[in-house]
Write a structure and sequence with these properties.
The structure is a homotrimer of 349-residue chains. Chain A is α+β, with helices and mostly antiparallel strands. Chain A contains 7 helices and 18 strands.
């Protein structure tokens, strides 16, 4: 079965603070990798997590300075994956090495490029600039979900599910009933939904901090292959938010980037940042915990859906109007996959 | 591999009191189903447990009145499986539905017909009338066993195993030594064993409540594909039980109906009813718990046997005289399977 | 996939004291076997652990005298595997039996021959005589390791790993740096390493009980298919040990015999015996516990290596100088496997 994820893309490995001068094993796009930060210059490093000699995961070994020493026979590698020591012999086999992967660090995440290193342009790191922009403040987490990464994308590209999955916090009937618009570019797809003059759900009433109806917005921006930034907020009804004046409202961004681990599991990195009450550390913590609770509701759904799909391997899915955004996301992913397919296979299509 | 269970048959889903106005997920004959009882008329309902839209198990959703609402996007179905609501759109795709299965309620069990609904004749529900006949009183349980359902049938069709598996309760040498007779009809097979003038095993001595030898009987009646009612009892030796006068004895029925879950697991519904000391609620409880203990002894054997069979996938089994009843049961099942096979396969045999 | 272990060989089942007049189930070379010691003459018995009738593991049954009675229908077998009783029938099917396997008892282990019984010559039991020789004293254990048995052999045939895996006890740089010699015979391969005038690692300093440099030796003797006896010790530097006079030193043998359970698991029987302070029971216990701690360090490496190999099924391994001994061990095993291959396959090579 062909992989469902392109390899020529940047995928978030971990939050920047999680990569330290110590070994971290993580599987990304079915590749077992080991990560660490060099002491010499603070740069993050990604190597194949299997010793050239006997395949023992190098993450079971240890760092000596910026070299990685295998925990079995002491074979050592520099941070480019070149072997620098072999036991009981003077010369080193010239081909002895493990593969190194391009790494980038941006928007508070460390990213790895599992595909062709010649194509690894740092300019292609997905846009999550709100995560380090001083105009926005917030925090996030990484969760491991037992589902294909695209099921998380589907979930985020259609927020009508808030009504049914998150009824006690951010969902209400208005989300399922409001019309929305879908647009797309070469690598992005956007779903815009405005809910005018509605009663806000509990979460947003608390954020706004005053009674009365609101204009609520959800502007979902997908960037292929697996990053979604959602512009969310409410403003008192009729104060001009739909027309561009959000000054009376509260605004947040739900930042999501999902990294395939295997075909049926993924690492889901998310953050929530806001542009109001930025000095309130307590609010930052409350929001992080609140969003974490909401995402656990999604997790149960996503894992049940993954099992159901595995039980029905040949199922052809029906799509509803609400699936328009997710369908565009998948179409853009499919284009990336097609671009990576071997030429002969492309000719045969 | 062809399934080992016919689909055109009634299988017990659960005890009647277990199906309530709430969602119950159960896999039957490899089909994931969701059950509930309608509020409107109290009838039990069986639907495919996978939403038409994205396959999420409907059992993860909720009832709204007698409609089932998916827990992801709120797609709603009536109790016939027809879609009645889709989010964010006015019209409903006319093909949107989940499969509904015929259900019957009889003998204190709810039954489902996983095969062709046109053939689902309620008159074909297996005979377990003792379970609701006021002349008999008792109780039972459902256990989940990790073995193919036919291994439970084999176990029940030959009770010589009581001697070796249940030596502390109902087994003794007499069962393994007594001769027996096997007869069969179109859908039934019967094994009759009389043990005359024997010392009763502990269980039956306690039921009879007096010393001395007994005439003991075991009349095992199989009804295809997976129901077995066993007429069991003892009477003081020489008081005429073998000739038809059981008036001095005690008589019970072990009621068993086994529902395939998968090829290697099953739901085993059993009850024990008696026609003596019927007002003694305490005895009903003691018997249910006692039989449950005995069946746990079988469970260990059956699960070990299943594992051994999986370890020897091509093993051809040898049969002993004691296997005559089980062989007839399997033959009647095979006839049902052959009747369900596609015509071309039948011709090829 | 062809098995990685020859069948025509003696494999250690258990320590002699572990085989008693009770049933012990153990899988050896993918064969499920049941072992017990006869009451009549104390001999160990190995039978196929699956009843002829319905495959129930006989280890779930019980001994009656020296006969094994199946726990399901009471079918009985003598210690040669011949059926002696069937329930409810006078005659016994003449073919009814389970396979019996040749057993030997030597060097404090019970051994079984899973292959052709005609070839089971007790003279072929691997040499571990130190384990019962009064000149040596010690103790050992059996551990279950989740790796192919040859990974344990690789580990033992190259002790440079001590430097990296066991740095706190028996390893230091000298092991990885010292030269070694490899020789081999028809069924044996030997790796000899002398480390002259070195600082001893903590373990050996404690055994020798005096300060100063030592001459240290490791003479690793492999006997196909899976037994390795390692002559280890230290003597004060310059007292003549390399030339044959070990009288000033301390000497031990690490005795290892590894029994394949499946392709990816094994039973690893090991002992450590010494020829010094033989009356010190406390030292015997300390050494057994100390070696057990060291072997747990190996176990973590071996199981990680097995998983990595399963993740890279087609990997071709590179070999270093240090692998010379392990390569000879594998070559001798491959010869045994080739000798067992069906003639046609041999011709095709």
């Amino acid at each position: 079965m062909a992989a469902s994820f392109p390899l020529n893309a940047w995928y978030a490995v971990a939050w920047d603070h999680e990569i330290r001068h110590e070994l971290l094993a993580r599987t990304i796009c079915n590749k077992k990798l080991v990560f660490y930060r060099r002491a010499a210059d603070g740069c993050a490093v990604a190597l194949e997590d299997a010793c050239w000699h006997r395949l023992l995961p190098l993450s079971k070994g240890r760092l000596e300075g910026d070299e990685l020493v295998c925990g079995y026979h002491g074979i050592a590698y520099d941070s480019h994956g070149r072997c620098t020591f072999m036991p009981s012999q003077e010369t080193i086999n010239p081909g002895a090495c493990v593969r190194a992967y391009p790494v980038a660090e941006r928007h508070r995440f460390v990213w790895v490029w599992p595909g062709d290193p010649a194509l690894a342009d740092p300019a292609l790191v997905p846009d999550l600039h709100w995560n380090h922009d001083p105009a926005w403040v917030g925090d996030g987490r990484t969760i491991h979900v037992n589902c294909n990464y695209r099921l998380v994308l589907d979930n985020l590209m259609d927020l009508t599910h808030e009504t049914f999955v998150h009824g006690s916090s951010i969902g209400n009937r208005a989300v399922a009933e409001a019309p929305f618009e879908t647009t797309h570019g070469e690598r992005t797809a956007t779903v815009t939904r405005w809910m005018r003059d509605i009663e806000p759900p509990p979460f947003w009433r608390a954020q706004l901090g005053r009674p009365g109806n609101v204009d609520r917005w959800q502007i979902i921006r997908f960037e292929a292959p697996s990053t979604i930034a959602i512009d969310v907020g409410v403003a008192p009804a009729g104060t001009g938010a739909p027309e561009g004046d959000r000054s009376q409202g509260v605004n947040g961004f739900v930042l999501n980037t999902i990294t395939p681990e295997t075909e049926s599991t993924c690492h889901y990195h998310w953050g929530f940042v806001r542009n109001y009450q930025r000095a309130e550390q307590r609010l930052t913590t409350e929001l992080r915990e609140g969003v974490a609770r909401i995402f656990r509701e999604d997790e149960l759904i996503l894992e049940a859906q993954q099992k159901a799909i595995e039980d029905h391997p040949d199922h052809v899915f029906y799509n509803l109007n609400i699936d328009a955004g997710a369908m565009w996301a998948r179409r853009l992913i499919d284009r990336m996959l097609a671009a990576e397919a071997p030429p002969r296979l492309q000719a045969a299509e």
